[in-house]
Specification:
This protein is an all-alpha fold. Helices cover 90% and strands 0% of the residues. The protein has a single domain, classed as Substrate Binding Domain Of Dnak, Chain:A, Domain 2 (Up-down Bundle). The protein has 5 helices and no strands.
């Protein structure tokens, strides 16, 4: 029982110490990741995820302003996950679009080659 009380006290003290510093660096990282996601087209390819990231970032800033640093950090972490997801989803969608365009170009070229071969055979 005493060990449990000591462990609980230690965890409380550790948590209390961890929550005394505003997560400014984390908020800056999240903002940067959101901007990167926007630059790769998150508005078009991952609108829900980028919107959630912005919303959680704003919430984290409010929590930090109210000096609720631990909750602000956790919220910023969730915003980071959403921003990274938006970025990766956008990059994936853009890559898939490029692959579809490339396949279509290959199909058109194959048709042209076949048409040219058919014309050549008909002349013979």
């Amino acid at each position: 029982m005493r060990q449990l009380l000591l462990l609980t006290s230690f965890l409380f003290i550790t948590t209390a110490c961890a929550s005394t510093k505003p997560p400014n660096d984390k908020l800056t990282q999240v903002e940067s990741t959101i901007q990167q996601a926007e630059q790769v087209g998150a508005e078009n390819y991952a609108p829900l995820e980028i919107r959630e990231a912005r919303k959680k970032l704003a919430e984290a800033r409010e929590l930090s302003a109210k000096e609720n640093y631990e909750k602000a950090k956790r919220t910023a972490d969730r915003a980071m996950v959403d921003a990274e997801l938006a970025q990766m989803k956008s990059l994936s969608e853009k890559a898939q679009k490029a692959v579809r365009q490339l396949r279509e170009s290959i199909r058109v070229l194959q048709e042209e080659i076949q048409n040219n071969l058919d014309k050549t055979e008909n002349r013979s």
